[in-house]
Specification:
about 50% helix; 10 helices; Flavocytochrome C3, Chain A, domain 2; mainly alpha; 2 strands; about 170 residues
Length: about 170
């Protein structure tokens, strides 16, 4: 009897593991690049103001040999598209998640659905993926990462507009 229930347990564990794997594969979203977001987020000022940030220039600030250095690429780029194109610099999707499944208008207009399809609302943890102890010392800021301060300085200028929207 003990042997049998153990067997049942093992089988159950295997099938649980299998479903988790399938679920994990389903939620894999692909990167599309900031140009795809620009189409809709130009008029609201998000894309143009992002272009002014250091994030948008994080790739061109690397020297050519550094752009080939695995030790530098990760934090100075966003990810790779389904076609294998490296997205240079810290683009929208580095903070908001890969966008192929949420960028459709009908989905974007529905915040809950967009989040379900992979849209991330960034918080401090998002920034700390790159703003951490692994930044080479010569480039690392001496100050401790202050989310509110860095958000005001480094992210596109929408916070203000959002406040306006809320008070309308
Ligand atoms: C087809 C048009 C369209 C495209 C393409 C698009 N968006 Fe949106 N997005 C919208 C609309 C419409 C809203 C909801 C209204 C608003 O906030 O402007 C929105 C809202 C958002 C929000 C706010 C979510 C919230 O409620 O806090 C984020 C973040 C966002 N989009 C990021 C992106 C990113 C990143 C991309 C590119 C991968 C992208 N969008 C592509 C139309 C689009
Ligand atoms: C763990 C993520 C990470 C890695 C790895 C990384 N960087 Fe950076 N890098 C950053 C961050 C974050 C900043 C901004 C620092 C700040 O202002 O706090 C930065 C800043 C810089 C700057 C400063 C640009 C300016 O505006 O002054 C240069 C240049 C740079 N990094 C080059 C490199 C090189 C070269 C490598 C590889 C040897 C590298 N980085 C590896 C995250 C990283
Ligand atoms: C360095 C990280 C970062 C990058 C890069 C970035 N964003 Fe954001 N974005 C944020 C943060 C942080 C917020 C504010 C989230 C909050 O607290 O609601 C935000 C908010 C937004 C909002 C919603 C504002 C609202 O109405 O609530 C939109 C739309 C948006 N981002 C689109 C974009 C697009 C499009 C790009 C690329 C052109 C982009 N973001 C690049 C971090 C980033
Ligand atoms: C994918 C990695 C990555 C993520 C995620 C990221 N950053 Fe950065 N950030 C960088 C790099 C790299 C630089 C330096 C770019 C350069 O100057 O070449 C930087 C620079 C900055 C700067 C400019 C610093 C200066 O000295 O002027 C600010 C501000 C900033 N980030 C804020 C944020 C905030 C806030 C978040 C989260 C909402 C965030 N970052 C998320 C990689 C990242």
């Amino acid at each position: 009897m003990i042997g049998l229930s153990l067997l049942a347990f093992v089988i159950a564990s295997i099938s649980v593991a299998d479903t988790t794997k399938v679920a994990a594969e389903k939620v894999k979203h692909e990167y599309v690049g900031a140009d795809k977001c620009k189409y809709c987020h130009k008029k609201d000022g998000v894309h143009p103001s992002w272009l002014e940030t250091k994030h948008a220039k994080a790739w061109e600030n690397l020297k050519p040999e550094q752009q080939k250095d695995e030790k530098c690429i990760g934090c100075h780029s966003t990810g790779t598209t389904a076609k294998g194109v490296l997205l240079e610099g810290v683009q929208c999707e580095a903070c908001h998640g890969p966008g192929d499944d949420y960028r459709k208008k009908s989905i974007m207009e529905n915040r809950e659905l967009a989040i379900e399809k992979g849209l991330l609302i960034p918080d401090e943890k998002t920034c700390l993926k790159c703003h951490n102890e692994n930044v080479p010392e010569e480039f690392r800021s001496k100050e401790k990462f202050d989310f509110e301060k860095m958000k005001a300085k480094g992210v596109h200028t929408l916070a203000q507009k959002v406040e306006e929207k809320k008070t309308e």
